[in-house]
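The records we work with from here on pair a chain with its fold. Here is one such record, which you should read through line by line:
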Amino acid sequence: MNPASTLIEARNLVKTYTMGDMTVHALRGVSLDIAGGDFVAIMGASGSGKSTLMNILGCLDLPTSGEYRLAGEEVEGLAQDALASIRNRRIGFVFQQFNLLPRTRALENVELPMVYAGVKAAERRVAAIAALQRVGLGERGGHTPSELSGGQQQRVAIARALVNHPQLILADEPTGALDTKTSEDIMQLLTELNAQGMTVVIVTHESDIAAWARRKIVFRDGLIVEDVRQAGHLAMTSFEAAAAPGKAKELESDPNLSTLDMAQGNGGRIPIPGSEGSTGSQAIAESGSDPYSRSAQGAAAALGRPEQGTAPSGGSAAHAVASVGVNLT
């Protein structure tokens, strides 16, 4: 697709949720276009409709009425399996709480979307290593999430979002669980990806995070009340990043670095496991064997979706599905 062409086309999107006897009007006729290669920040108070729009743009949910096209493909009338396919092929997701499988190494977390896409093990491994290298974690593939800092976990999540070469990155409060310094690092990474041609859409309530984008859209009461272009931030070159005050080349300087990492004499590096066959079965077992497990709540990619017309319960199940683009319901 030509980066200048329209990637997202939404017309008169309406979304209502039924909660007992009450009807919530989350979106009230929203229309917008987003060009390929743009960097857009969506802002608004809690309950303004911004997260509902993100769910629809990400094919996690369908509008009650209205039209939505992603890369020219009509989305609003598709079945759940077709929506899952679009998520897997076209969209990479990044969430506030990372949604990594807790007992699975970083490399295998990144491989997970390819497991569900049917990619062969050897090809998955090569692609996952390349994705981790792209986000500066080439030597961290053998770590589980508990052995990584918050910033490193978010980088793993971004690598997972990139591994299937999506056309769109959707990031829902990607810095919400991070400190200021690490937040800047993550936004710099997203800016670099955008500079390479990736379309990036973030949802945030923080003005300093929204300032990184080149377009800002503000929601209130289910409507767009502001839509402006802005300067955004330029991506730093690798030389500039290395020379910037307080920026070390090695990720061990991350202020959120875990105690285990700092204690290990080899800088926390663990060799990447050589087994080719464990990723699929282990990840699927961890993500989907028990719909009520803690893994399912945070990262069970194979489980659950919000019922149409009802309010999602916190979004964790929907977000988990999105992370790998699968629907097994």
About this structure: The beta strands are 6-19, 22-35, 39-44, 65-70, 73-74, 91-95, 168-172, 199-203, 215-220, 223-229. The first strand starts at residue 6 and ends at 19. Residues 246-278, 284-318 have pLDDT under 50 and may be disordered. DSSP finds twelve helices and ten strands in the chain.
